[in-house]
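Researcher: Next entry: Aliphatic sulfonate ABC transporter substrate-binding protein (Desulfosporosinus fructosivorans).
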Amino acid sequence: MFRPKVLSIFCLNAFILLGAIFLAGCAPTQKADTQAPADKPKIINASYVSRPINVPSIVAQERKLFENEFSKDGIEFKWHNITAPSNQLEALAAKSLDFSNSLNYVSAILAKANGNEIKIVSSYSRFPKGISLVVKPDGALKTVADLKGKKIALQKGTMLHEMLIRALSEVNLTTQDLELVDMDSTTATAAIAAGHIDATILPEPLLSQAIASGRVQKLRSAEGLIPGLTVIAVRSDFAKTQPELVRRYLQVHKASIDWSQANLEEALGMTAKQNQMDIKGVKSLFPVFTFEMNLNQVKNDLLNSATFLQKEGMIHPNVDLAKLVDELVDPSYLPTE
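Model: Predicted structure:
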């Protein structure tokens, strides 16, 4: 026979045991609903592009703005000199790059359409007046229509490519009416001077330098053809797992823009030194560029471009362009101030 006190203790222990079993059974469900935050990376990798005259990036590097910000969390920040858009996109796809600075918008569109999971989180710059179709200064080619049957070099899959297609369409020509060679702008500048090609499309500061040297003359500006837009892109998986780091990255970029505006003489001096240019040349080119982060107009620009590129056969006809652009552009990381 149990004594009353012993019975009470027994019942209490049994109740506690049953409660523990019940709670243990509920625990997995509760744990499944809670997602632990991702560990912060040890290194953040970003592309560094100083040209055309990318003042914000130059200022940020010179003043170590990103390095100082992320070192607060023990994160190393690394710049990588990767200028070619195709190489930047390959690095993003390979996860050896987290952020792509000053990526031209056409490359971003085509990359997304081909399955490269990236997000545009900020505008970087606009400079349609700083891009031009150029020819040899011998007077043989006076209009865009004169390019028929000629050899022209530029980087395919970029905004320069779209500009050419649009310029040709104004005179009822296509790229099939001429010989198109895939070549970076620096190489194309040398090629046209040597007489190996008849025309190319150059961005600043190569454009002004080539004109000043007498090697080329302008035939058609990009103004009215393309927005001349560059953007900041990030790997989609990085943005998903590290949203706060993306926001902080953009806050630092904004700080570099703000500092440049408040200390313009010093910022332009840094730019001249980095790009090995005369300060007078930098000052004359700077007004051609607009450095802003706003994404309000970007979706419309990208959709307009994507529609044109799809019509030209550069994007598969089954791609839903509205969905593509909506998934590509994400303004939620922009600074609110």
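Model: Note for the record: The longest strand covers residues 118-126.
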